[in-house]
Write a structure and sequence with these properties.
Largest sheet: 5 strands, mixed
Oligomer: single chain
Distance between the termini: 46 Å
Helix content: under 10%
């Protein structure tokens, strides 16, 4: 495996900027965790959780970054020969806004909810409808995001609101191969083996109708209980930032269905009915068998630190954004599931010039390039296989003077797949 390293002068300047943080999620350390979880024997990895990482998890998510006067805005680099052409869908978290921009940064279309507190993720459907996971403003003086403020919303191509459904949705939503919508949600529950008094956040994958009504759900805690031989659970300290303290055991942040029949049977991760999920607090990506309700594959322990946005590639490998929580620099890695070998990675030179404590995304493009979102700093850029930057963008929106708005992710889309006006 060879490491690919690249950066730009602008990236180095932004690397030194300070982050402005807003209420998010994490843990603050302190409580011991037993050897097993729940009623079944789920192994617990007791030696993998230094308190320093707990403290980093306890930092709220960044809503903006401080920048110098005259800092870069919009698209600052376009290599037309080597960049993959397309339009870009970007989610601007604290403005509850999504924008479709062209390669030059020109605004083509936007969706927004002015009275919302934040959007965590958007998904553009085949017909041009936009799904957004968000939260309404919390009452004055409230810490964190109240469960009841969370929602899933759907707009049409022209930005008209179709429906808004209150639910504990968070981080990701997609359409499954069966045509139904699927979202990450959670429920609070008591698990005495994890904590004698605090709730545990049990992350769920829920199937939804076109109108946003829940049809089915799968518990990830139950999935690991059914799969004690797949991965040992990393202990997670109580999170005391939010409205009510809890044990945020998984903190999942992406889901993607296995969609390539030609790969079915090649490996456990590739099967009809499997969902690939990224877990920030377990430092892992894993695959849930929807029908069997169990975990069939997991990877990342000892390699990933606070990861986001795991995606299945055409070649059968998994691409994941490795935040480097506790390491101080981020990277993007491509892993071959059968061998657990990292076959490609991108990191900057110096590594610390590319870092986002929270969020982050990566997308493999048809020409082999990779589109990366350095979310906290409001930056997205495209690199070649060799790590050369061929397209570079900085969010032009501000939350205040010299406070560049953070982005959640950026996705490049073939314009031929979009609706025609």
């Amino acid at each position: 495996m060879g490491a690919t390293r690249s950066t730009s002068a602008v990236a180095r300047a932004v690397a030194a900027s300070a982050l402005v943080i807003l209420p998010g999620c994490g843990g603050d350390g302190g409580d011991a965790t037993p050897r097993t979880i729940g009623d079944a024997s789920v192994p617990v990895d007791e030696g993998d959780e230094p308190s320093r990482v707990d403290r980093l998890r306890g930092l709220p998510y960044a809503g903006s970054s401080e920048v110098d006067e005259g800092a870069a805005r919009g698209v600052v680099l376009v290599d037309e020969e080597r960049s993959w052409p397309g339009v870009n869908l970007v989610t601007i978290q604290m403005l509850s806004r999504a924008e479709l921009i062209d390669a030059s940064g020109a605004l083509l279309r936007s969706w927004r909810m002015p009275d919302s507190d934040r959007w965590e993720r958007v998904e553009l459907l085949e017909n041009g409808d936009l799904l957004a996971i968000g939260a309404d403003p919390a009452p004055q003086g409230t810490r964190g995001i109240p469960d009841g403020s969370r929602y899933l919303v759907r707009f049409d191509w022209d930005g008209e609101l179709l429906w808004k459904r209150p639910m504990t949705a968070h981080h990701d939503v997609t359409r499954g191969p069966d045509g139904r919508l699927y979202a990450l949600t959670f429920r609070r529950r008591k698990v005495a083996a994890l904590h004698p008094t605090l709730d545990v956040r049990d992350d769920l994958v829920v199937a939804l109708s076109e109108e946003g009504d829940e049809l089915e759900r799968r518990s990830l805690l139950a999935g690991f209980r059914r799969s004690p031989d797949v991965m040992a659970i990393t202990p997670v300290a109580p999170d005391r930032i939010g409205v009510e303290p809890w044990i945020d055991l998984f903190h999942t942040n992406s889901l993607e269905w296995a969609r390539r029949p030609g790969l079915f049977g090649a490996h456990a991760v590739h099967a009809d009915g499997n969902v690939l999920i990224s877990s920030r607090h377990q430092n892992a990506v894993f695959s849930l068998d929807w029908s069997e309700r169990r975990i069939v594959w997991a990877w990342g322990k000892g390699e990933l630190q606070g990861p986001h946005d795991a995606r299945l590639l055409e070649n059968g490998n998994v691409l994941v954004f490795d935040n480097g929580l506790g390491r101080g620099w981020s990277r993007v890695v491509e892993v071959e599931p059968a061998s657990s070998e990292i076959v490609w990675e991108y990191r900057a030179d110096p590594p610390e010039s590319f870092y986002t404590l929270s969020k982050g995304s990566s997308q493999r493009l048809p020409n082999g390039n990779t589109l990366i979102a350095e979310s906290d700093r409001g930056r997205a850029f495209e690199v070649t296989r060799e790590g050369e930057v061929v397209w570079d963008y900085y969010c032009p929106h501000e939350l205040g003077p010299r406070k560049r708005a953070a982005i959640v992710r950026m996705i490049r889309i073939d314009p031929a797949t979009l609706p025609t006006d």
